């Protein structure tokens, strides 16, 4: 039986990827900093990472942090994967990393390039933001009685289980390079998403759109993080809210 290693396998995306692969009969190892028996810090590498990769043919790289360190972690993972003879490295990235000059997006793009140049067989999937991240974003914005929302902004949230299923499918296939993006089913204005969130949580807030400035905001405002031609997701934001708060 072939073996797959899922980095960040206890996280929001890594956990359903692991569950899906196991449901498909795959032997899966979960790598995270605190998950035995394959606990390792990707940024440090070392014997623990080599042990986790021994005998692995496919890696699904879900581990990521907006606080930094993704490039260093990718470099360690790629080097260890080469030593272990890994045949296929699957990476989850974000729609718009080449258009939005946010530091986290730049790091994700840099990781993509490292993987492309790694000499390994590789697949990269870019997805739009998950529903739960949108809830986190909106919970902060709507905490005060007057909720200040970034003006003229839209988003395309996607169901994390759908991204997980696609990653598992890609992991079971041959390396495919950059595959088509995976976007949520609807492009929605931020006020529309905020109203849906407030309705689901039974709260009332006054919403006020405020224009922002800068290259990053301009990239978001002009839809650099959206993929309307790949709105292939099925689960809507309201359906997610109903499950979480219903």
Quick structural overview:
The protein has helices spanning 14-23, 47-53, 70-84, 103-116, 131-141, 160-171, 190-201, 215-221, 237-245; strands spanning 3-7, 27-31, 58-61, 88-94, 121-127, 146-150, 154-155, 177-178, 188-189, 206-210.
Write a structural description.
The protein has 246 residues and is of the alpha/beta class. The chain is globular and about 55 Å long. The protein has one domain (3-245): NAD(P)-binding Rossmann-like Domain (Rossmann fold, 3-Layer(aba) Sandwich), CATH 3.40.50.720. 40% of the residues are buried. The longest helix has 15 residues, at 70-84. Helices cover 39% and strands 18% of the residues. The model has no long low-confidence stretch (mean pLDDT 96). The chain is built from 9 helices and 10 strands. Helix 1 (14-23) crosses helix 6, helix 3 runs parallel beside helix 4 and helix 7 (190-201) packs parallel to helix 9 (237-245). It starts with a strand and ends with a helix. Helix 3 links the parallel strand 3 and strand 4. The strands form 3 sheets. The chain has a 6-stranded parallel sheet with strand order 2-1-3-4-5-8, with helices on both faces. Strands 6-10 form a two-stranded parallel sheet. This is NAD-dependent epimerase/dehydratase family protein. It comes from Streptomyces seoulensis. Residues 8-132 form the NAD(P)-binding domain. InterPro entries: ComplexI_NDUFA9_subunit, NAD(P)-bd_dom, NAD(P)-bd_dom_sf. One of its GO terms (molecular function) is protein-containing complex binding.
């Amino acid at each position: 039986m072939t073996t797959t290693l899922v980095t960040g396998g206890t996280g929001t995306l890594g956990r359903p990827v692991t569950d899906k692969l196991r449901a498909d009969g795959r032997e899966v190892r979960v790598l995270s900093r605190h998950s035995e028996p394959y606990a390792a810090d990707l940024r440090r590498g070392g014997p623990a990472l080599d042990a986790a990769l021994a005998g692995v043919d496919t890696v699904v790289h879900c581990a990521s942090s907006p606080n930094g360190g993704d490039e260093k972690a990718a470099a360690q993972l790629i080097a260890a994967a080469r030593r272990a003879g890994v045949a296929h490295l699957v990476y989850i990235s974000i729609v718009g990393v080449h258009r939005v000059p946010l530091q986290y997006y730049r790091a994700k793009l840099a990781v993509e390039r490292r993987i492309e140049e790694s000499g390994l067989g590789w697949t990269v999937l870019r997805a739009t933001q998950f529903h739960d991240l949108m809830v986190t974003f909106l919970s902060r914005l709507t905490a005060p009685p007057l909720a200040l929302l970034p003006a003229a902004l839209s988003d395309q949230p996607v169901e994390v289980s759908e991204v997980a299923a696609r990653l598992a499918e890609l992991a079971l296939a041959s390396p495919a390079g950059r595959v088509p993006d995976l976007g949520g089913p609807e492009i929605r204005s931020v006020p529309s998403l905020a109203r849906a969130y407030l309705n689901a949580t039974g709260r009332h807030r006054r919403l006020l759109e405020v224009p922002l400035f800068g290259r990053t905001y301009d990239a978001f405002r002009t839809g650099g993080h959206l993929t309307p031609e790949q709105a292939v997701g099925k689960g809507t934001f309201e359906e997610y809210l109903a499950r979480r708060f219903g």
